[in-house]
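Fill in residues.
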């Protein structure tokens, strides 16, 4: 259909903490969130699986983790930062394919058939990780792979921080190889992606603006909703109270009104 606009609203970090899980399900049941990606090594994995069974309309993929947490393969701690991961990759200290395969198997063993794959901290932009993710997408029939190349959006406080702009620009430099690898494996990705530049910094007003600027084609909007209780406050993440604000924005009535006025169809990967 000419001019068709479709939007997947996908939450990262399902399985991270019980209060993050709660917020993701609330954003789906009462808001515009259509999908989420599950952390196989998350502390609240079993809680997330329970909620997934109770919420069959929530489309679930795998949030593949090579940074933070523990390896499902060895039980040892994974690299704690992107530089540490890149060093481990360069030294071939990490069995990337085997680790990610173990994570997908863990999700499948829990009775969840993932429809899409993405990675914590967008680590599949690193060539060895992307190669493994593409292979696994084919092997597990989860052919949708997240594309972390943002189109510009502004958040409150005078626009996007300089560091976010630089990182976003650096990510875009890998775009050509990224698409070549996915295409060679028969994987699929959305036409557009948004959310990186405003992670942790948006409210309902920014989502209303997003609906106004969404282009034709399929767009994924990445978000991180959650409830912020003691579990999240004690977790190793910079995104804490901001998850509550993202949740409030995702369930705000004015956001859905703006979406409908723009003629945007909410979709998930299961039905694309």
């Amino acid at each position: 259909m000419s001019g068709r606009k479709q939007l997947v609203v996908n939450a990262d970090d399902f399985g991270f903490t019980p209060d993050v899980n709660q917020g993701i399900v609330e954003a789906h049941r009462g808001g515009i969130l259509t999908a989420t990606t599950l952390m196989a090594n998350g502390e609240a994995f079993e809680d997330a699986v329970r909620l997934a069974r109770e919420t069959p309309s929530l489309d679930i993929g795998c949030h593949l983790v090579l940074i933070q947490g523990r390896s499902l393969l060895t039980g040892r701690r994974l690299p704690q930062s992107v530089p540490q991961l890149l060093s481990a990759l360069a030294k071939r200290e990490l069995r990337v394919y085997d680790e990610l395969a173990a994570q997908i198997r863990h999700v499948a063993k829990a009775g969840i058939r993932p429809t899409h794959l993405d990675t914590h901290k967008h680590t599949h932009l690193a060539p060895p990780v992307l190669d493994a993710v593409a292979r696994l997408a084919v092997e597990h029939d989860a052919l949708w792979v997240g594309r972390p190349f943002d189109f510009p959006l502004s958040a409150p406080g005078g626009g996007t921080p300089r560091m976010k702009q630089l990182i976003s620009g650096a990510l875009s430099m890998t775009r050509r190889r990224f698409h070549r690898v996915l295409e060679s494996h028969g994987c699929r990705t959305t036409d557009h992606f948004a959310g990186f530049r405003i992670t942790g910094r948006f409210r309902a007003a920014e989502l209303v603006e997003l609906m106004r600027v969404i282009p034709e084609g399929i767009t994924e909007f990445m978000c991180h909703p959650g409830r912020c209780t003691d579990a999240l406050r004690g977790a190793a993440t910079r995104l804490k109270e901001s998850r509550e604000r993202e949740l409030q924005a995702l369930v705000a009535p004015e956001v859905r009104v703006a979406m409908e006025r723009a003629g945007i169809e909410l979709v998930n990967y299961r039905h694309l």
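The CA atoms of residues 36 and 255 lie 19 Å apart.
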